[in-house]
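User: I'm putting together a small comparison set for a docking exercise, and I want a reference complex before I start. The sequence is below, and the ligand is flavin-adenine dinucleotide. Could you produce the 3D structure with the ligand included, as structure tokens?
Assistant: Of course. I'll restate your input first, then give the structure tokens for the complex.
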Amino acid sequence: MKKKALLLIILAAIVAAYFLRPGSGPGLEGLRQHIAHLDGWRAMHPMLFIALFLLGYVVVVALSLPFALWMTLAAGALFGLASGVVIASFASSIGATLAFLASRWVLRDWVLSRFGNRLKPLSDGLARDGSAYLFTLRLIPVVPFFLVNLLMGLTTMSGLRFYVVSQLGMLPATLVYVNAGTQLAQLSSVKGLVSPPLILSFALLGLFPWLAKAVVSFLRRRRVYSRWTRPARFDRNLIVIGGGAAGLVSAYIASATKAKVTLIEAHKMGGDCLNYGCVPSKALIRSAKLAQQIRHADRYGLTNSEPEFSFRMIFERIKQIITAIEPHDSVERYEGLGVEVLQGYARIVDPWTVETTLPSGQKSTLSTRSIIVATGAAPFVPDLPGLDESGYLTSDTMWQAFSERDTAPKRLVILGGGPIGCELSQSFARLGSDVTLIEMAPRLLAKEDAEVADFASQCLKSDGVHILTGHRALSCGSDAGQKWIEVEAGEQTLRVPYDDIIVAVGRAARLGGFGLEDLGIPTGRVVETNEYLETIYPNIFAAGDVAGPYQLTHAGAHQAWFASVNALFGTFKRFKADYRALPWVTYLDPEIARVGLSEAEAKAKDIAYEVTRYDLDDLDRAIADSETHGFVKVLTPPGKDRILGVVIVGAHAGDLLAEFVLAMKHGLGLGKILSTVHSYPTMAEANNYAAGNWRKAHVNTRLLKLVERFHAWRRG
Ligand SMILES: Cc1cc2nc3c(=O)[nH]c(=O)nc-3n(C[C@H](O)[C@H](O)[C@H](O)COP(=O)(O)OP(=O)(O)OC[C@H]3O[C@@H](n4cnc5c(N)ncnc54)[C@H](O)[C@@H]3O)c2cc1C
């Protein structure tokens, strides 16, 4: 209410000022007369006069009235050059800051809720370079002064920064106008005050921060390269280290664009996803799901029975599936595409040289214009007393270890309640293991909303998984051949006995041993890169799990496009990696699929939203398939159909999500999903119904009443 009142006052003042103005101000003659009028009064009350002038000037600027130029000229005429500049400079900066704050208070929430994520690149750019932009805008008068105040109010720039940069940036023009004001009597027009040469010098001054930035960045680049000698020519355009999702896609793009590229893989082509991650885990999940369906066959009108299977055969099937997919990522395929593949361990010797230790022990050294580091991540193993001695499995080792067994582990502990820990817990429970899932955080799937995490917990519990959330692992050990892990929750400690333990507490980027340290490339949890995926060496890039922040196959492949295009063509144009519509799926049964904001994230970022929901127990296909568990939840700005985020829980949620990912990526709202024909009966209709629920909640009731009357009238 208060905001609306302020907005109305400002608008009324601006409109009044425009209506009352003769021309766009008093004109030079009018100004001379006003000043002559005020002269006597100024002599009698000099201090009060200055205070009132300053206040008037501040109000004019704060309300964005079109008299600021005349006030600046008047400041020169009334107070002379030095005092005029001081008064005009402070008054215009204070007024501008008030306009900036008013715009922030009145308009910012609305703009954020309306444009949300679409403004992110702009606001990120402003957060980084805002002062330079503002300084330039102040100096080069291409954007009207009042508009700069209002627009900057919509950004995250602090009021103090805005004030200081504005005052500095406006100083040269203030000087010119105040100086002109001191010559008011001789002035015949305001037009020539800012002549083309003067505008040019302002423009040069406005470019100063950018030139300074470019020089600093050039010097920084020179400094990182200073201790190395750049080869005169290069053997390759690009060398990619690592043959997982990120490395394969990088090499593919390079060869497709006719670059000379070498891909170096130390171990297995296809990396973690094919050999230890997505592929085997999804194959395991499928077998486990079938076992569970047999166990609960009565849901489908069949007779329940205990599934009979060989554990060894399940892992044999997993091996076969890897073998069937392997050709997609094989050396032969990539060589056929024009990529040179080296099997060996790569080390970056200098910013342009990579040395590979081949299986024979021989070394191959190649020079290259650019390098992409795509070395992935490995399971993180916590420093838990007794863990090494007791023995443990990880996603790297479990596939081989279990493939040599006839039966599932009897008592299995899984450490870590993230997506991998949850997926494995459900699968092994369904294959007959007595699974205990231990998670330190108060709930599973920390990245998801509490409602979704609770849903996952319920599903796991119904499959017989014992869930110990809020339990911290302390140590492992064994008594009389009986292995245990000790956990604590608050004051209480507990020993959980087990036969096998799988450590799934996260994955640590592979950062060491291949030259990053020697080159001084900064690393934290991942290789530090900028938005272009460049390290501190602009010709060395990183992509995939080693670069983070998402440890997903499709995220690595997505980054690979940016890394390779920037590496090969960055001299002409560089692209910033864009994660705005990046989906992820937890392959529990039912699946959990997410894109964009969750409710918790929207609240944390103070983004206004409304929730539209559709429960799958209403969907014909879900009922026919006895897969009614789950829902579609869509976040939109209040009153708008633009999609801020979606979570789908249910059978095939990962596949259903694709429609929303496409919609978010291309700015399509729920209205467009509603107007798209979906086949009957499919699970995908759930998206259509969710969009329909949004529409029902936003029907125009007045219009409907009118239509009702129209029908009544037609009936006579
Ligand atoms: C159990 C499990 C399930 C998963 N499920 C999914 C899923 O369903 N969906 C999903 O999107 N993601 C999933 N992931 C994650 C996914 O596997 C990874 O995000 C993906 O493999 C990362 O690809 P990458 O190319 O960054 O690294 P990697 O696949 O790890 O490839 C890096 C490669 O670099 C090689 N290398 C390292 N150093 C050198 C060197 N110095 N010289 C030469 N070669 C080197 C390594 O040998 C490795 O092959 C899962 C992971 C696990 C563990």
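The longest strand covers residues 363-373. The pocket of flavin-adenine dinucleotide is lined by residues 241-247, 264-268, 271-273, 276-278, 281, 345-346, 374-377, 395, 420, 510, 514, 544-546, 551-554, 556, 587 (CB under 6 Å).
User: Thanks, that's exactly what I needed.
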